[in-house]
């Protein structure tokens, strides 16, 4: 039988490392199972300008290195392991990395979410260099520019509206001729004079150059209803075709919405299973910011600490 940990934190983005920092400072000697993409979504972000405390901005990977160091300073142990299965049927809870079993009195799930991408090679090439999946994070870099946003849901409409604050012109390209977005969001986008819709079309290729610096120069669009392709000059591409929470290994045990976002009790990080807590984007499809994830990691750590204390653990 394995040693029983006081607290295991699954995931290593802003939520996970903040939970590790707080539980570390509480003397709980947390074990962080960092997951397949240690550092989380910020590892694929270039400049972060909206995290308080960095007046000059900071690179995403650098910020996550700082988060990790700060957690380790208070005793967090970070292991580059990916959880493959959990068993929350009894306490202590069981967590598996392949055949290896871990046990913990408290578990904090901070596995985050991943933006869905179109699936083009050029999307990866220009990711962070004109291609983004977060208008709130990167819209500011496109002041006075022309951008295109892919998607027809609420996120695409919300982000298109947001982008018009910075951009000269925002095209929304949608693969059908009706939107999935709610009526009110549709109307807001359609009434915005800076937004133009391109219906029944998909981004087929993102065009760019490496000189003088790597940047996007345009897109090739393809019609979804006729045999037609065309190119369009563009400065930036925002992909807003949804996010997927990294919750697959937990949904058997925990309540979740139809998209897989984990449920927690109101105003807390408690799930319906005692000793299992959630924080960050895996349970939040609304805010999805590093700072809100970090805040909820702190909440989960405090909830876990109180839970352990109440049980004399
Ligand atoms: P969503 O509702 O799933 O919409 C995704 C959109 O992307 C759809 O229009 C879909 O097209 C399109 N799409 C999917 N895969 C694609 C692909 N490979 N290529 C091109 N287009 C693709 O996702 P979401 O907009 O992120 O919203 C997620 C949830 O959050 C929803 O429940 C939404 O209501 C909620 N939300 C609410 C607010 C708000 O109320 N303020 C804001 C944001 C999000 P099809 O329509 O053809 O399937």
Describe the model:
The chain is an alpha/beta fold. Helices cover 24% and strands 28% of the residues. It folds into 2 domains: 178 residues, 3-Layer(bba) Sandwich (FAD/NAD(P)-binding domain), CATH 3.50.50; 123 residues, FAD/NAD(P)-binding domain (3-Layer(bba) Sandwich). It contains 7 helices and 19 strands. Strands 1, 2, 5, 6, 7, 8 and 19 form a 7-stranded mixed sheet that branches. It has a 5-stranded parallel sheet with strand order 10-17-11-12-13, with helices on one face. The protein is elongated. It starts with a strand and ends with a helix. The relative contact order is 0.18. The model has no long low-confidence stretch (mean pLDDT 95).
H-E string: EHEEEHEEEEEHEHEHEHEEEEEEEH
**Major sheet characteristics:** 7 strands, mixed
The top-level CATH class of the largest domain is Alpha Beta
Strand content is 25-35%
Broad structural category: alpha/beta
Instruction: Provide the number of structural domains.
Output: 2
Taking the alpha carbons of the first and last residues, their distance comes to: 19 Å
- Give the CATH H-level superfamily of the largest domain: FAD/NAD(P)-binding domain
Determine the number of helices (DSSP H or I, runs of at least 4 residues).
Answer: 7
CATH topology of the largest domain: FAD/NAD(P)-binding domain
Give the number of DSSP strands.
19
Question: What is the CA-based Rg, rounded?
Answer: 21 Å
- Uncertain regions spanning at least 5 consecutive residues: none
């Amino acid at each position: 039988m394995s040693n029983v940990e006081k607290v295991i934190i699954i995931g290593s983005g802003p939520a996970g490392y903040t939970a590790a920092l707080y539980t570390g400072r509480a003397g709980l000697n947390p074990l962080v199972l960092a997951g397949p993409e240690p550092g989380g979504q910020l590892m694929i972000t270039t400049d972060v300008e909206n995290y308080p405390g960095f007046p000059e901005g900071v690179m995403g990977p650098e910020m996550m290195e700082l988060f990790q160091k700060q957690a380790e300073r208070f005793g967090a142990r970070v292991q580059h392991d990916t959880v493959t299965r959990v068993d929350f049927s009894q306490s202590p809870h069981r967590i598996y990395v392949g055949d290896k079993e871990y046990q913990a009195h408290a578990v904090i799930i901070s596995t985050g979410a991943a933006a869905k991408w179109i699936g083009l090679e050029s999307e990866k090439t220009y990711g962070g260099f004109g291609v983004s999946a977060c208008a709130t994070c990167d819209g500011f870099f496109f002041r006075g520019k022309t951008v295109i946003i892919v998607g027809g849901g609420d996120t695409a409409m919300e982000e298109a509206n947001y982008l018009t604050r910075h951009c000269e012109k925002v095209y929304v390209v949608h693969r059908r001729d009706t939107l999935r977005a709610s009526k009110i969001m549709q109307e807001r986008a359609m009434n915005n004079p800076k937004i133009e819709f391109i219906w029944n079309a998909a981004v087929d290729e993102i065009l760019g150059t490496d000189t003088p610096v790597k940047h996007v120069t345009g897109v090739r669009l393809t019609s979804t209803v006729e045999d037609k392709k065309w190119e369009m000059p563009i400065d930036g591409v925002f992909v807003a075709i949804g996010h997927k929470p990294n919750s697959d290994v937990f949904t058997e045990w925990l309540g979740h919405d139809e998209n897989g976002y984990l449920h927690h009790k109101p105003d807390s990080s408690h799930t319906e299973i005692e000793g299992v807590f959630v924080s960050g984007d895996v349970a939040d499809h609304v805010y999805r910011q590093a700072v809100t994830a970090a805040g909820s990691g702190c909440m989960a750590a405090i909830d876990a600490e109180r839970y352990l204390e109440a049980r004399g653990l």
